Amino acid sequence: MDHVEALDSIDDFYSRVRWNNQFRWLTTVPNHLKRVFNDRKTVLDKYQDITDTSDRIEESQSLVKAENNSQNVLSTVFGEDSTSHSVLQRQEHLLSQKPAWHAPWKLIRVINGHVGWVRCLQVDPADNEWFATGSNDTTVKIWDLATGKLKLTLAGHVMTVRDLTISQRHPYLFSASEDKMVKCWDLEKNQIIRDYHGHLSGVHTVDIHPTLDLIATAGRDGVVKLWDIRSRTAVMTLVGHKSPITKVHCLPVNPQVVSSSTDATVRLWDITAGKSYKILTHHRRSVRDFNFHPSEFSMVSACTDDIRSWKLPEGALLTNFSSESTGIINTLSVNQDDVLFAGGDNGMLSFYDYKSGHKYQSLATQEVPGSLESERAILTSAFDRTGLRLITGEADKSIKVWKQIPHSTPESHPGLPWVPSLSAQRF
Hints:
Layout: H1 2-23, H2 31-40, H3 43-61, H4 69-78, H5 87-96, E1 105-112, E2 118-123, E3 130-135, E4 139-144, E5 150-155, E6 161-166, E7 172-177, E8 182-186, E9 191-196, E10 203-208, E11 214-219, E12 223-228, E13 234-239, E14 245-250, E15 257-261, E16 266-270, E17 275-280, E18 289-292, E19 298-303, E20 306-311, E21 316-320, E22 329-334, E23 339-344, E24 348-353, E25 359-364, E26 378-383, E27 389-394, E28 398-404
Antiparallel strand pairs: 1-28, 2-3, 3-4, 4-5, 6-7, 7-8, 8-9, 10-11, 11-12, 12-13, 14-15, 15-16, 16-17, 18-19, 19-20, 20-21, 22-23, 23-24, 24-25, 26-27, 27-28
């Protein structure tokens, strides 16, 4: 008899589990069916529903503390977490936060030397003594960071140099070009030592893995390729983007590869599985650039009139920046002091507080005399390793160096006003 009772209890448990798995969703009526049911109710039925709801609210009020009546009533009627996601609480949180003050920036040096648009630049990651730039004139130039003087010109590409990356563990510089080539330069010999063939069209971006002997390249053919540095073989091809890829970056931990594209997405790649495990689809237009925060595990991406920051590794949205009417954004850079720089295609420099998303300074670049008004665009940017100097490469063929105004205070330079609005926060 005990054996039969045990079998009956097992059957009952199995039936309840199957019902919970298959028919649990039927316990919650969808909103469109609720509207149909409400339309069919009589006036007396609707009055009875209102009476029952008020009775439940009175009963719940008698069981809670007086100072928390409103929140507990809401959580009793609408669910436990409704107050944490309410519009009013989001508005109060937005108004209560205060952005940190940052000193404004000013132009201190203009460097000329290229005869084409300056498309990319990288600062020496080891000693912070020099930086490299690539241009439409097909050359890579090395500049002294302190004086701005030209140290070296590297010629080897036959088309525009679109991106550069410098290794921290090797004396190598890698350049990507529209001639479908990625070249490895030995900075001790100042010559090309390796070429990487395999892309079907122009290569727009290159980055070196911080811990592995790999480089990631991507471009107009819409795929990310991982190359072994020494053997020059493509060890992996990551397929998923539907349009040309604008930027790729590597991290020592997951996601080890992140890429952005003109298909308005940012993909976080799992290179162990060889596929993307997260696709950020919040942007509506081409994502031209993204960058990582140097001291916290987050990243920021931008498309036209839209800048957003993301928590890594899961890719959760952190902040919507006050970036309406910013225009096309070509480049983003972040320093250790939570200053985000965004360079626009219209020549505007925008500086933001990274944590709150507040734009505290906006100024126009000073074009080189004799250049066209249409060449007033900021194409690339980078902070030096201290975060105290900002370097920009522009369409007027110049390189500009910016620094914060010394001895500035919140009283002397208050910056743009902080006027938060819930409508600007695109939740």
